[in-house]
Each structure stands twice: as structure tokens, then as C-alpha cells.
Amino acid sequence: MIERYWRSLFYFGIKNAVSCSFAIFIFVMLALSKKLEYHWIYRYDFLLILCIMHQVCMVLWKIESKDELLVICMFHVLGLLLELYKVHKGSWSYPEPGLTKIFGVPLYSGFMYASVASYMCQAWRWFDLKLIKPPHQIVSVLLAMAIYLNFFTHHYIYDFRWALLASVFVIYFPSKIYFTPNKTVFSMHVVVSMTLIGVFIWIAENIATFLGAWKYTYQHHNWTIVDAGKLSSWILMAIVSYIIIFELKRVKGELE
Questions:
Q1: pTM to 2 decimals?
Q2: Using CB atoms within 10 A of its CB, is residue 90 exposed (0-12), middle (13-18) or buried (19+)?
Q3: Per-block mean pLDDT, blocks of 10 residues, the chain (256 long)
Q4: Is 191 within 8 Å of 232 (Cβ atoms)?
Q5: Given 3-state DSSP classes, what are the helix, strand and coil percentages for the chain, each rounded to the nearest 5?
Q6: Rounded to an integer, what is the distance from CA 238 to the centroid of its chain?
Q7: Measured CA angle at 216 (ends 215, 221), to 5 deg
Q8: Exposed (0-12), middle (13-18) or buried (19+): which is 33, by Cβ within 10 Å?
Q9: Would you kindly state where each structural domain of the chain is located, as residue ranges?
């Protein structure tokens, strides 16, 4: 019995690492590019070229399907729109120069959001994910829209993130995710799984800012750990990612 659980834990870690291949690639490139001397190309432009090449290779090698590429592109656009707005508001910045920057936002930044979608698409396949008792389609879509809009509107009106988190708990309370690391099927509450993903994204964000992917206003002179308050934002973003992927699969009839 114990050996079976250890084996499942081993496969759980391996499959998660494989699912994170896009994010791992970005981290490695951030680390390597930080040490390079640029004479003919800017770092942000170099990272954009590498991310595009990696994405093309993942599709050509059939690591990602064309449908998954559609989801990833959607997140790239949603991420860039959010980046444009947040940088304009001064929430964070990209201080390095680049030819592929639009209103202060390098185009490669959208791939960091896309890597989250890539992870979820990969994990869905590798773990044979199944959602039991999902909320009604209209409810989940409206929830995703409300969460995304709140990232913009909280600069002008009340920040509803805690109300939205409470809504997520209520709406998804009956729902569970079933996943298979090896041969044994496990279950986890949707809110717990999304919280764990949000925590790991926050850890990844600390690594990314340390490597100079972007900087918050309090990190320009000396790097400091990212405010723990960002955890709630990443949990909500994970929920949005999950809803979009799940609903697209539901529309295409890929769910059992």
C-alpha cells in the first residue's frame, strides 16, 4: 500500500514537471539570457524569438495539439492586454530596452501567461483529469469574466477579489477533480487544486522577478520577495485558466 502511494507520488512529480515544460524553458532562458552580453539584439527581443521557436516546436513535435495552441494563444492575448493596462497604471514595469515593446510591454511577456495555460492543457492530458459535478456553463463563464474584469476595475472601484474568491468556493464546492498519476485514481477539491497552482505560480513569480523578467515598484533598487497579497491574484488567474480550458473542452464535446 505504502509503496503504491510512493510510486504515485513519483509519477505525480514527473508528470507535473513534464507539464511545466514551457514554463521551465522560459525560466532557463531567463537565467541564461541574464548573463549574456547583447551587441546586436536586446534581451526582450531575444526571449520573444526563443519563445516563438519553442512554441512552434511543441506543435510540430505534437507535444501540443492545434486546439491547445488556440487556448495558449488566447491566454497570450489576455495576458498582454492585462500587462498593457497594469504597466500603464504603474503596477510593475519592464525596465530593459527592446524593439518588440508596445507601450512599455515586451511581447514575450504574453508567453508567461501562455505557459500557465500550457501547463493546464498538458496536465489535463497526462493526469486524465475529470471534473465531477461542474457548475453550469453560464455560471462558470460569468465567474471567469468577473474575475478578469476585476483585475482592471479595482483601480477605479472596490476590489472584489475576496468576494470573487468566496464565490469560487461556493460555486465549486460540490466539484472535485479526479486525476491519475500512475494507476491509482485520486481526487481533490477544485478550490484546493487551484490554490496549490496559485501558490506555485507565486513562487515562480519570485524566481522570474529575481531573474529580471519584470520588476515591481519596490524591486527597482534591491530585489525583495513578491508581496504575498499577489497569491490571491494568481489563485484567481488559475481559476480563469481552468474555466476557459474546461469550457472549451465542454463545447468541443471532449469531456466524458
A1: 0.90
A2: exposed
A3: 79 92 93 77 92 93 86 90 94 92 94 92 91 90 95 92 94 92 90 91 92 89 89 91 86 65
A4: no
A5: 65, 5, 30
A6: 6
A7: 75
A8: middle
A9: 2-251
